[in-house]
């Protein structure tokens, strides 16, 4: 016990297997426990990083998918706009055609009325001519 105390004073200790150690057995046990806790902490940190990495990857994929859908939507909207413009242009062409045909119809109506008047005048002239004989 006295030799153990002298060794202890010199900073040397015997462990449970009676091997000579520089650290006190209790400090050595705490160190080993801390080492294990550190190892477990490092493992958990690595696992956490892996989870975060896969989460980031997933978010990236979702962002790409969202961007792709956004581009599709923009394309569809532009297509609809161009179709609407085409329809508008077609409608204007048809309106112009209708107006043109209405004017033509009016010309034909006036021409018809004129011809009817001429026919009536000619019939009257023929009737007068026949009655004069």
TrEMBL record:
It is found in: Cell projection, Cilium. InterPro entries: FT20. Residues 80-111 form a coiled coil. One of its GO terms (biological process) is cilium assembly. Keywords: Cell projection, Coiled coil. Pfam families: IFT20. GO terms for cellular component: centrosome; ciliary basal body; ciliary base; cytoplasm; intraciliary transport particle; neuron projection; non-motile cilium. Its main location: other. This is IFT20 protein. The lineage of its organism: Eukaryota, Metazoa, Chordata, Craniata, Vertebrata.
């Amino acid at each position: 016990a006295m030799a153990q105390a002298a060794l202890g004073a010199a900073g040397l200790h015997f462990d449970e297997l009676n091997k000579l150690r520089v650290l006190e057995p209790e400090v050595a046990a705490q160190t080993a426990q801390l080492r294990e806790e550190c190892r477990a902490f490092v493992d958990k940190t690595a696992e956490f990083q892996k989870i975060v990495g896969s989460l980031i990857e997933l978010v990236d994929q979702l962002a790409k998918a969202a961007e792709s859908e956004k581009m599709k939507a923009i394309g569809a909207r532009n297509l609809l706009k161009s179709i609407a413009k085409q329809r508008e242009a077609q409608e204007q062409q048809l309106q112009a055609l209708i107006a043109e045909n209405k004017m033509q119809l009016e010309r034909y109506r006036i021409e018809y009325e004129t011809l009817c008047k001429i026919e009536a005048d000619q019939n009257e002239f023929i009737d007068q001519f026949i009655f004069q004989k």
